[in-house]
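Schema walk-through. Below, the input block comes first and the output block second. Nothing else is stored per chain. Lengths vary across the set, and this one has 70 residues.
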Amino acid sequence: MNTLNKTLALIALASSSAAFAGTDFDTLDVDGNGAISQSEASVDAELMSKFAELDTDGNGELSKEEFSKA
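--- output ---
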């Protein structure tokens, strides 16, 4: 998926009420790669505030396991 499509998907996600619930991994994983990037997490302020703490392996993404500890 190119950058423009990712950006449009993030905008659509940010405008949806599901994005603000911030509890659904699959909804936040816009590109479907099995991880939540900082860009994808940016639609949820609470998740972003905990991102560094949750990213226990320091790879800049949250796995389902890391996300489940939110």
